[in-house]
Amino acid sequence: MIRMRKMDDRRVNEVFYSRGLRQERHRHSVASFSFVASGRYEERVGRQTHSRSSSTLIYHPAGEEHAVKFESDVRIFSVEFRGQWSSNVSDRLERSLSHRSELVAWLGARLGREMMRVDSAATLAIEGLISEMVAEGSRGKMLREETSSAAWLSRATEFLHDNFTYTLSLKEIARTAGVHSAHLSRVFRQRMGCTVGEYVRRLRFEYACQQILSSERPLSEVAYDAGFADQSHFNRIFRNEMGMTPYTYRKLHGRQ
Asked: How far apart are CA 184 and CA 64, in angstroms?
């Protein structure tokens, strides 16, 4: 331990680890993040092994097990969270992560300088830097989630566009996308602004409108081909969306 700074429900530790040191699998009772100021080490979390290098921000939720092998001399700023801060950070980050960016490197360097100061403004500065580092870690998490969801979300929407006239199950759509159905529902609603069911209903409605305007097919046949249960269901949905029946809509646009 080189330095320690306590601030209500947070504690910042500046710690030095010598090359070759090993820490067997262990867990910490509190949530924390570490900024690697210098050096490199190998960390095993669950079944995955990660290489941690300088200017990296690593978050560990409370109770997570990990083992560490230090490949060089390493200096780390570790921030432990307790009380309300622990709850706030856990809600933002949920699970372990690592993040690197120019802003993270700058914030970590500033944190190191403020830890050496003893004036009355140092604690206030450190609190602000910790808040910014949590925010940057949260932003990195969201960006990674958006990137990882792009491919499977595209597969899901393509599948819906190709098959919206059929009776589909959420499990079938999730299997095509390659994700769990609960994850599909949550992310689809966040990214698309509606549920999967609402999206399918919208596709059916748009198809039906196009058929009404471009053909003279019977409305019952249009409703069936679009995937609606029956014409009365189709009429009810259409009236809710357009404020008129399909027949009136066709008549107004020159087809009877």
From this structure: 26
